[in-house]
Design goal:
Elements: H1 2-25, E1 38-41, E2 48-49, E3 57-63, H2 68-83, E4 89-95, H3 99-113, E5 118-121, H4 124-131, E6 139-144, E7 147-153, H5 160-171
Parallel strand pairs: 3-4, 4-5
Antiparallel strand pairs: 1-2, 1-5, 3-6, 6-7
């Protein structure tokens, strides 16, 4: 009887270990965005459509107005936009906040910072598809025709802008 219990416990432990190993061997899901994705614009009038940027490199920032590194990243993307204004590179910033709760704060930040690129809102499902495997914000994606070429998580003002600049140069046609 004791031997049967030991064998049973060994069998159960073996199944648990095998299951854990099988789960860890699964490939990590990649972030995704549809080339036809649509997002709510800051004014709520004209949707931001990825299809409008077909053939262009898109720098897409996921951010929140309550996040200081996010604010820094969005501000620094103004520089990036001016550096690449004539080179088929577009910048978009999508807030992950609830529009009804954060509209005033986001609108004020955009106006006070003189943001000159499109800003809007991303829904929870779309942000989860992009952020899969990473929860930290800001997250910045370099995208072309729905293909994510590069992903940056977090923002270090000393290095990220240069790395993003280099990634754009590497992926220009």
């Amino acid at each position: 009887m004791v031997h049967q219990r030991i064998l049973f416990l060994a069998f159960c432990c073996g199944l648990s270990i095998t299951s854990a190993l099988a789960q860890s061997a699964k490939p990590k899901a990649e972030p995704e965005i549809s080339a036809t994705a649509r997002f709510r614009s800051l004014d709520g009038q004209t949707p931001i459509r990825m299809a409008d940027y077909r053939g262009k490199l898109v720098v897409l920032a996921l951010w929140a107005s309550w996040c200081p590194p996010c604010q820094t990243a969005v501000l620094e993307l103004k520089t990036l936009r001016s550096d690449f204004a004539s080179r088929e590179v577009e910048v978009l910033a999508l807030s992950m906040e609830e529009p009804e709760l954060a509209k005033t704060k986001v609108t004020t930040f955009v106006a006070n910072s003189k943001i000159d690129f499109k800003v809007g809102w991303i829904g929870e499902i779309s942000s989860q598809k992009l952020m899969v495997g990473e929860e930290a914000i800001p997250q910045i994606f370099l995208i072309k025709d729905g293909v994510i070429l590069k992903r940056f998580t977090g923002w270090n003002p000393l290095t990220k802008l240069a790395k993003l600049h280099d990634a754009i140069m590497e992926n220009r046609d």
